[in-house]
């Protein structure tokens, strides 16, 4: 099969010369034209399949050439766009609008729709988009394909599935591979995360049956967790899940780089909350245990500001301490830093904004969903990554079904962050010195 | 739930006054605006669900009002379209094109995407489209929704399933209900069509698990069937399927009026051919047994033309005989009519064209797929419907995998109809008198 | 395949002479010997399959001959039984007991176990048992096979499944075919019995995936039904199931005649009660609506007894009225009969016994399960069958999970029938005249 | 639940005194009597479940007491056995035989049948049998339960399933745990054994859905493998399976100790051969790559015999060399040993017998199945275990569907071992000196 394709498209996997590479990309492009032509109607699936396979056989430079050709040869025709625009201006009717709509739609859109007819086509297009995003540039292609993928991966087409030890190894090993927040260190680690007092849920799309799209890991606990290490500890004792009163979402991972920007996260969390409510009547609280990924670099950027705490002259003074290895195991130093950092973190989350939204990306995600900032946990994550990005701090955001809508609207319309009152108080401790933020 | 919705939207299922009806439609429209607004992000699924339910509660006139509002309030903004058009004309760049693309896309598209998030949303939208098509008018809405549905019902998302007696009653009763070509007269009739020497295949979409999208009925036979009544006869003996050498597609039915215009038929036939080839190595021929639905009315339209056969003065003479009840049981008359009608039918299929394609819709479908017109079967369908639409004639189109592409291309580019040589000869018998067709 | 078997076993489906028939039976028997011999170890599945197929090809008389041979040639060896008995008597040890156990086990048991290795073997054996039971006689074979089937159809191997409109037609048509209590009159009737306020549950065995073993039909109602016709009425309105407070078991059917005597019924009812309790929190009462199948014939047998009611001289007087066609539509007569029959029915159910258990088979089944006789419903079933077997009366038995065990034990050890107090009172009205019953 | 059971049965998991232990065993036994009594009919499933759980809570000594009680209290009544034996001797009829059959059947059988009604009952009984076998003694109980398990695990009830990377982790980790022949060293090792040119098949029983009963590992190869290490090598290259001409069964493992003695192995191999024949038309040879587990100890037992090879005085001479560590890496020594050992191994497999069957257990299994001894592979397994049990030798047995029956019958009736002619020749080289074997 591969051999046959190689003949068809003159490809060879290795040793591609620059010229050979360009010819290969040109051949794929030609095949795309054929697919868009009438012939595509009869032999669409086969042709689409061949195009995707031969695309995969291109090396990075070959793909770049192919992207260039996609941009050049499958964009709307400027002349027709211009004329349709004129026609609309002269007589803005249903018909002239329809003509203009047709004129501005890239032929790429139809090309991608036809490529989707190949067996495994959807997966191929998601990978193509990942390649485009990684390569950067070619914005119009990414936009076209993203538009299509957003439509195809509409939440109405996604299925929530629980992942546990009965799930196939094919899927489980993908969790190990994809988990981005708290690395899974092999099958034993994974197993602990799927046991009785843990839950893992993922969204699946029917066209990618073996590929989780996004997944969330949940711990069922007594009381709202303030530290992540005990949750990840392989030797932690298993809580009987029916005695839990809290569900802690401690990790959420997007699996498909090609679907970046398609919003699934908030749907996933809401459906999981509903599922858990149905299953466990005693669970009253749904909260995250989240990093504050932008905190540490924000501190550095504001190093010159006074620290707002009696024990430090300014933030730089604090940052310097954070650079000392093992500082969190030095009890005295840690206690001193706590006094300085916790109010600063409260300030950071409530006041440090960009375009009216918090600077912190995780805060933006949960607050936009309508969650409430509930608690700041000192030394909540003492892993290397946790210390480096969040100065060891973790945060709980609480999801209360009844308040999500109101919180969301205030967040959107009034730029108000829903937060527990104590956090407001903490932020004020830091407020005098820090008066300005970008 | 319904009660609650009724309060929310001020609806009541019955006794709607004209004013009440308009208020109801207006309330659904308002909810659509809310769904498109920020709030839709948090409560999308619930809101979408409420909108679809309250839409279903509108009566025909209420729906009409709702369509009017959809047209008026969710179309692109002409001012913005105009400005974006000007901006593009002044500077045709990637950015101005992107702006123009955004400007011309109807807000309806995003509205429909969000409605799809409701449980059962896809089904609701397919029904909405069916309502729109039935009502007529509102072309821009139908176009927008059709655009979306074509993308969502891409063949890459459809699954071919065999339907047999192990299939659920939910699905089986839909075959009884939908079958359009040769009516299924209850469960016993259906059962015979699913037995050992019969096959039924349907496409399903993951979002509509209980709804066949399109299905085809196949008989496995020895020799290519020339008459449909023996196939439909409940008491016909069952051919051991492994002894069959021919697969006859005797009925193909689109089930979803809301998906009219989305092309599935050719994909279905091709996949079924592949499946049957894999399962039955002895089957060498794949053919349809198809009606000629436009033949009878074409005869009437051309009544004044000479009949091209010695025994009739002109077509009107033939048509008059066809109006006599029971003509096909009168052997002498039938023989005489055969001499006149078979050549005319050959002529009709090969020469009677509109926009370069055959006038006959079934011929257009199969020839466009790349099939070959193989045989004209006199008295192939003597049912009332068969006599009325096709003068009792049925036709075999043959699908030869190796020739589909070539036939399709000649059909498209050269307007050539692939036909067995005998049919060409027949058409020539009728050719002298009939010189013109629309 | 059949042809080959026919050769192998010298069978032909039709026109068997008496001699040919016996030869055929002898050949099947020989094959059984081969299966039990060493060869069976290697080619067991194939040989078993051939035996079962050729058995099915025997006509009734051929099967009878086969049964005779099974009895003659596959019974324990009396000499070995005698010697093993002696050895045990001389020295009753573990070893001599084991020898005796081996000696008394029929070779048939192992034969049946090996026949089960054929694809579809279990089904074949269940059918064989049905044939044996229908033919009568051959008790030792029936006992051996029954012993095995009881072990294989242990409740631990059965799966409870809900049957609804999503179930396959293969299974649904078996409900239509098997329903024994209240005949199902086609697909529309079946459909009504599976709708929202109805439930149907069946036990399945993994080796017979398409064969319900036993099924029960349930109506979810407000109040405990006293009449069956409204439940069966196709035009009855559907009760929202979540508003029901009672589940009425109105029909229970054993599907496999070959499994008669294997007790499933009580397991089925208990599991269904548990399932319904989980699903519907408002349902407080689980009751049957059952016929009194032996009542009418019991009346005839006791015709000479006084009727215990002022309006009739004796039971014969009542029975005579019951023979008048349409008596139940004659209001006056019906009212008069009610006065006589309801107390007699109470008496029949509470006092008419055989071997310490009620004469009535349905009463025996439910009372043995631990249910309570709750209510006697006059004109509860006015169908022809209902009038003929139960004089139109139906009875409610109530299943109260908390009391089943106690009721069952009293029933077994003290021959006490659990009944509502009113029924005891009614029985006493009839008690004076009727002093004796078999 | 556990707490409640502990109360019921007076159990506590730890610190059981000898007296407490016996009381606990006595309480489980009492519950067994209740289950067998009438009450068992109504509350069987619950009671059975409680018995199995409380049995699991007994420690080893408690279980021993329970087994003693099972033996004492649930065996046939000797008085009734004696009387039934007398009755049969006086009048050997169908009735007296039936009475004797009832008398000799242990009440344990019915007890076990009722225990099976508990959810997970079958699994519990398989575990109980494993405990009994491990403990030893209590033969009548093991026999009774084994009789039942053999009937329940009849091949007709087992399902063959392919195990691959799509299988659930629950099942996959059991392969890692159970594999007995060539240890699986973690998930990566397992993964290689399930890849494209490998196959793994297992039998499952419907009552133990997550428990493989027995499984076999197969390599699809070009040519018949003579060494196992290359097959197990993680870095071995993957052969395109459609190019393979041989299927090598290199490991077969019984998973359930409680089912020891229930014969599945030959059914499994035959079904897998059929499956592979269907899937891969080019595979012409089905062979095992098997150890010779009894060879090394047989050598030691026959150390005094002459070696039949010029280079060694006697077998003791050879055995002494085999005790030198690393001998197989010493080319010269290995070559010398080969000359002596290969003929001895041929002799061992063909001539060393016990009760007319080969001494070697693996040889017995495959030859009884009708396979042919095809080739002796020098240094076929150089793992520690392979050197220790088989002197590094591995053997190919070939399964030829057409010859299995004949080989099996000759093996059974004539004690003939089917072997390639070269092996006979080899054996003769060793035959002079070795004239006797037990």
Helix content of chain A: 40-55%
Broad structural category of chain A: alpha+beta
Radius of gyration of chain A: 26 Å
Biggest sheet details of chain A: 5 strands, mixed
Count helical runs of chain A. 20
* Content of β-strand of chain A: 5-15%
Q: What is the arithmetic mean of pLDDT of chain A? A: 88
Order of helices and strands of chain A: HHHHHHHHHEHHEEHEHEEHHHEEHEHEHH
Instruction: Label the overall shape of chain A.
Output: globular
**What assembly state would you assign to the polypeptide chains in this entry?**
homotetramer
How many β-strand stretches of chain A? 10
CATH-level-4 superfamily name of the largest domain in chain A: Malonyl-CoA decarboxylase, catalytic domain
The strands making up the biggest β-sheet of chain A line up spatially as 1-2-3-4-5
CATH topology of the largest domain in chain A: Aminopeptidase
What low-confidence regions of chain A span 5 or more consecutive residues with pLDDT below 50?
1-15
The top-level CATH class of the largest domain in chain A is Alpha Beta
Largest interface (CB < 8 Å): A-B, 56 and 56 residues
Question: Which features characterize this protein?
Answer:
alpha+beta; globular; five-stranded mixed sheet; Aminopeptidase; three-stranded antiparallel sheet; 438 residues; homotetramer; 52% helix; 20 helices; Butyryl-CoA Dehydrogenase, subunit A, domain 3; disordered N terminus
């Amino acid at each position: 099969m591969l051999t046959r394709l190689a003949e068809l498209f003159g490809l060879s996997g290795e040793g591609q010369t620059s010229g050979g590479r360009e010819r290969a990309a040109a051949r794929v492009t030609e095949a795309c034209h054929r697919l868009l032509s009438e012939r595509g109607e009869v032999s669409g699936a086969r042709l689409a399949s061949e195009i995707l396979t031969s695309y995969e056989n291109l090396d990075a430079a070959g793909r770049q050439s192919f992207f260039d050709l996609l941009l050049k040869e499958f964009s709307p025709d400027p002349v027709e766009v211009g004329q349709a625009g004129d026609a609309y201006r002269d007589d803005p009717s249903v018909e002239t609008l329809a003509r203009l709509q047709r004129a501005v739609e890239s032929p790429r859109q139809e090309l991608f729709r036809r490529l989707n007819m190949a067996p495994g086509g959807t997966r191929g297009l998601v990978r193509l988009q990942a390649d485009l995003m990684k390569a950067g540039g070619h914005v119009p292609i990414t936009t076209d394909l993203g538009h299509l993928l957003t439509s195809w991966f509409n939440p109405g087409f996604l299925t929530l599935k629980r992942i546990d030890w009965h799930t196939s190894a094919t899927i489980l090993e993908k969790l190990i591979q994809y988990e981005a927040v708290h690395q899974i260190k092999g099958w034993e680690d994974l197993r602990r995360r799927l046991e009785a007092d843990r839950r893992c849920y993922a969204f699946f799309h029917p066209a990618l049956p073996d590929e989780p799209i996004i997944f969330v890991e949940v711990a069922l606990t007594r009381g709202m967790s303030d530290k992540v290490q005990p949750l990840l500890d392989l030797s932690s004792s298993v809580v009987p899940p029916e005695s839990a009163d809290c569900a802690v979402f401690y990790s959420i991972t997007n699996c498909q780089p090609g679907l970046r920007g398609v919003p699934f996260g908030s749907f996933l969390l809401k459906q999981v909350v509903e599922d858990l409510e149905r299953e466990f009547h005693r669970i009253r609280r749904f909260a995250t245990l989240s990093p504050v990924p932008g905190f540490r670099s924000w501190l550095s950027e504001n190093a010159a500001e006074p620290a707002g705490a009696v024990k430090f002259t300014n933030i730089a003074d604090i940052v310097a301490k954070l650079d000392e290895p093992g500082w969190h195991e030095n009890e005295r130093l840690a206690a001193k830093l706590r006094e300085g950092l916790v109010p600063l973190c409260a300030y950071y989350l409530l006041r440090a904004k960009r375009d009216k939204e918090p600077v912190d990306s995780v805060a933006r995600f949960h607050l936009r969903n309508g969650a409430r900032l509930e608690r700041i946990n000192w030394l909540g994550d003492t892993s290397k990554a946790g210390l480096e990005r969040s100065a060891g701090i973790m945060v709980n955001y609480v999801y209360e079904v009844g308040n999500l809508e109101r919180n969301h609207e205030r967040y959107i319309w009034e730029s108000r962050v829903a937060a527990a009152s104590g956090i407001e108080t903490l932020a004020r401790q830091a407020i005098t010195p820090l008066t300005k933020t970008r």
